[in-house]
Design goal:
By secondary structure, the chain is an alpha+beta fold. It has 17 helices and 22 strands. The chain has 4 domains: 143 residues, Sulfite Reductase Hemoprotein, domain 2 (Alpha-Beta Complex); 159 residues, Sulfite Reductase Hemoprotein, domain 1, CATH 3.30.413; 79 residues, Sulfite Reductase Hemoprotein,Domain 2 (Sulfite Reductase Hemoprotein, domain 2); 140 residues, Sulfite Reductase Hemoprotein, domain 1. Helix 5 runs antiparallel to helix 6 and helix 15 runs parallel beside helix 16. The chain starts with 9 loop residues before the first helix and ends in a 21-residue tail after the last helix. Bound molecules: siroheme and iron/sulfur cluster.
Length: 569
């Protein structure tokens, strides 16, 4: 286990002295004078699934009134593979209205977030989550995060198998301290002393992410993860996984040493080797990840600094076996397919588009109410996709009509209500809750899409999807560097524009314009979209076109991300 050293970042010291993630959280909860927790504790609560935030819309007004910021918390659940039952949906919906701001937020990692939770509501909320058979353990923090897996509606048996894998990996890498049960669920102190056999007392140097994809679908964006497992299926059977290592999106403006990177495929493992390979890759990053500089503490930098050959030989040392040669696979896209799909076992699955993952009752669109009604009539599963959408899954043929009636009654988008462009778009949360946002994202993208929709229609591309991703800062929460077109916030109303990722999630994009507003965005993209309509080759995707046309250079490696940027190529 790594030893704590004086030069390690403050967060490492906080973890080390936290008594296995307890710190003074319990004391802070009892303090009624402030809505906040102690600074050091806010690092620890992430491991328990929640972040301290404040409502940024109210910040200056409250400051003016000499009030403390409107402190509140975001709670993120652990939900491997994104699968819940309709009863769990109803429970989460109820919790959101009782203890949070009345909305549910589907995330880009296939789970749920509650926003606007007041300090006094944290414990009742986590207890209600527990009663629903769910938890928030490791939703955030320097541990393995929610293990995502693609939703693959049509290949039912494989989906079930891969879902089991996501649960198995998540359970295996779960933190073990009794702090969660004691603090939130009032469990009596355990007779067993706390221990973290995989992580040790300082846990991981930074967050760690794992995804599984079943080709040809890459809707889990497998290459954006520290570990990506690509299911290899032969004669209908899962024979193992190709292993990709070192993916990640985060970057910081003005710091070229930070960059997004795609996972490198390092080999193939059989099902009985998989857990060992995953665990050993985690321990390699635990031991060699940078604990001094948090911006450099992701697996991608450990691998780039030491080399892929170093990684594979370190892995052999720890597992005692070599990975097999990677098997062939092909991805067709990283988006969702909407509407009804028949599974190979005869059950039906309905994918619904949920704009930017926000479940709420909007003035002209009663989405939360509709989902409650759906959950009451549905008897199968509800799955969250990594594109912030929902699959009403495992619908028996005789139950389809009842589901469809709710869809029709509320005009839910089963692939017809919105344009292909909007359905291929995704935005991170940003304002008003995200402390790191520099510009709007979730609240702005819909109106920008309205304008881009007009451009697409004029160009005769009304039915064509282009993967569009927006974030309010460069951290990469909506995986913007995998967008054929992406916008990352620089300042209110100003965005960097990136172009040229592949439609399949296996090529990064490139910075095209910096710090531009909506008029400039439209002035840049309008002629480009028209040119694409006129000059594209048969079946050519927008991201491939802008590279072929020389508008941006292809980004082959994370380390090349900052080379050849801008329009003056
Ligand atoms: Fe993220 C930090 C929201 C997926 C990279 N992310 C945050 C915080 C917690 C802001 C903060 O640190 O104060 C955001 C909370 C906003 C809010 O009010 O809800 C936040 N991230 C999100 C979500 C909710 C975006 C969404 O619209 O769905 C996603 C929750 C996923 C989940 O359920 O676990 C979310 N974040 C991602 C992804 C995408 C992914 O994992 O597939 C990434 C890029 C992949 C990666 O990790 O490299 C991502 N989030 C970050 C980073 C940059 C990490 C880095 O390596 O530099 C930060 C900032 C940080 O950690 O310092 C961050
Ligand atoms: Fe916040 Fe930036 Fe993540 Fe968006 S990308 S949720 S603005 S940290």
């Amino acid at each position: 286990m790594p030893e704590i050293k004086p030069e390690h970042s403050e967060v490492e010291h906080i973890k080390e002295r936290s008594n296995y993630l307890r710190g003074t959280i319990a004391e802070g909860l009892a303090d009624e004078i402030t809505g906040a927790l102690a600074d050091a504790d806010t690092q620890l609560t992430k491991f328990h699934g929640f972040y301290q935030q404040d409502d940024r819309d109210l910040r200056s007004e409250r400051k003016h009134q000499k009030l403390e910021p409107h402190y509140q918390f975001m709670v993120r659940l652990r939900l491997p593979g994104g699968v819940i039952t309709p009863d769990q949906w109803l429970a989460l919906d109820e919790i959101s209205r009782q203890y949070a701001n009345g909305t549910l937020r589907l995330t880009t990692r296939q789970t749920f977030q509650f926003h606007g939770v007041l300090k006094r509501n944290l414990k009742p909320l986590l207890q209600a989550v527990d009663r629903a058979g769910l938890d928030a353990k490791g939703g955030c923090g320097d541990v393995n995060r929610n293990v995502v897996a693609n939703t693959n509606p049509h290949r039912s048996a494989l989906h079930a198998e891969v879902h089991e894998w996501s649960k198995r990996i998540s359970e295996h890498l779960m933190w073990r301290s009794h702090a969660y049960d004691e603090m939130w669920l009032d469990a009596p102190p355990s007779d067993e002393p706390d221990a973290e056999p995989i992580y040790g007392k300082t846990y991981m140097p930074r967050k760690f992410k794992i995804a599984i994809a079943i080709p040809p679908e890459n809707d889990s964006d497998v290459f954006a993860n520290d570990i990506g497992l690509i299911a290899i299926v032969e004669d209908g059977e899962l024979v193992g996984f190709n292993v990709a290592a070192g993916g990640g999106m985060g970057a910081t403006y003005g710091e070229p040493a930070t960059y997004p990177r795609l996972g490198t495929v390092i080999g193939f493992c059989t099902p009985d080797q998989t857990l060992d390979v995953v665990e050993k890759l985690v321990t390699i990053q635990r031991d060699y990840g940078d604990r001094v500089e948090r911006k450099h503490a992701r697996f991608k930098y450990t691998i780039d600094d030491r080399g892929v050959d170093w990684l594979t030989s370190e892995l052999v040392k720890r597992t005692g076996f070599e990975l097999g040669e990677a098997r062939p696979y092909e991805f067709h896209g990283n988006g969702d397919r909407f509407g009804w799909v028949e599974g190979d076992d005869g059950d039906w699955h309905l994918t619904l588009f949920i704009e930017n993952g926000r479940i709420a009752d909007f003035e002209d669109y009663k989405l939360a109410e509709a989902m409650r009604e759906l959950a009451r009539v549905h008897e199968g599963e509800i799955r969250v996709t990594c594109n912030q959408n929902l699959v009403i899954a495992k619908v028996k043929p005789e139950a389809r009509d009842a589901i469809q009636q709710v869809v029709d009654k509320y005009d839910l988008d089963n692939g017809e209500r919105n344009t292909a462009l909007r359905r291929a778009s995704m935005a991170c949360v940003a304002f008003p809750t995200c402390a790191l946002a520099m510009a709007e994202s979730e609240r702005y993208l819909p109106s920008l899409i309205d304008k881009l929709d007009d451009v697409m229609r004029e160009a005769g591309l009304a039915d064509d999807p282009i993967v569009i991703r927006m974030t309010g800062c460069p951290n990469g929460c909506a995986r913007p560097y995998l967008g054929e077109i992406a916008f990352t916030g620089k300042a209110p109303g100003k965005y960097n524009v990136y172009l040229g990722a592949s439609f399949t999630g296996d090529r990064l994009n490139k910075l095209y314009r910096e710090n531009i507003d909506e008029d400039e965005i439209l002035a840049e993209l309008t002629p480009m979209i028209h040119r694409y309509a006129e000059e594209r080759e048969d079946g050519e995707r927008f991201g491939d076109f802008v590279v072929r046309a020389g508008i941006v250079k292809a980004t082959r490696e994370g380390r090349d991300f900052h080379d050849d940027v801008g329009p003056a190529l």
